[in-house]
Amino acid sequence: MYNAQTAVVFGLTLAALSVTGCYNNEKATHAQENRLKTEFSEKEQQTLRNNMVAIHSTKNVEAIAQLPQGFKFVNDGHFTVAVGTNSFPPLHVLAEDNQTRIGSEIDIAQLIADSLGLQLQVIPSSWENWPLGLASGKFDAVLSNIAVTEQRKQKYDFATYRQDRLDFYVTKDSKIQLAVFQKVC
Fold first, then answer.
1. Which of 50, 55, 66, 67 has the fewest CB atoms within 10 Å, measured from its CB?
2. Which 8-state DSSP code applies to residue 100?
């Protein structure tokens, strides 16, 4: 069974992606602040600075027309999206100012919001909290590195915008077999 709001919003994703852009401010944690300065090269930090420039899409009447009559977003006038709390470039990371969230997930969320004529509201959510937040109506959608599994497809609708591979490494003499992993996933 699909979450109706998520299905509608994700169904509009392709119509919304006409340009790329990002911009949304959130408070940073001390750990994230230190991570930016220690884990990113100067070139990577320059890329982050370049991505702080807000680029927006235009309102898309065709995308808006696809919304069911009477459809309500979680917060009136806003597209409310959950993203992960940890930096995970290029998907999401705090920029050099340690407040602005940037990355491809933020870009996509901004484009959808703009296309629907809404303001973007980003809510950082830990991995274990996104399903409950989505089911309880805390956010309209989740844009995060969520692998599509058969079990998750029974409850959620997905818009896959990149190829995802799940891999793990074991020593040659490990008793862990690929077939065991495939049964779990």
1. 50
2. B
Residue 181 in tokens: 């992993």
pLDDT digits (tens, 9 = 90+) for 17-38: 333 333 333 333 444 445 555 6
Beta carbons within 8 Å of 41's beta carbon, 6+ residues apart: none
Nearest to 134 by CA among 117, 155, 148, 114: 155
pLDDT at residue 136 is higher than 60: yes
Residue 60 tokens read as 């898309």
Measured CA to CA, the distance from residue 139 to residue 132 in angstroms comes to 10
**φ/ψ of residue 124, rounded to 5:** -65, 135
Whole-structure pTM value: 0.64
Phi, psi of 128 (to 5 degrees): -75, -15
- Say which residue, 1 or 89, is predicted with more confidence: 89
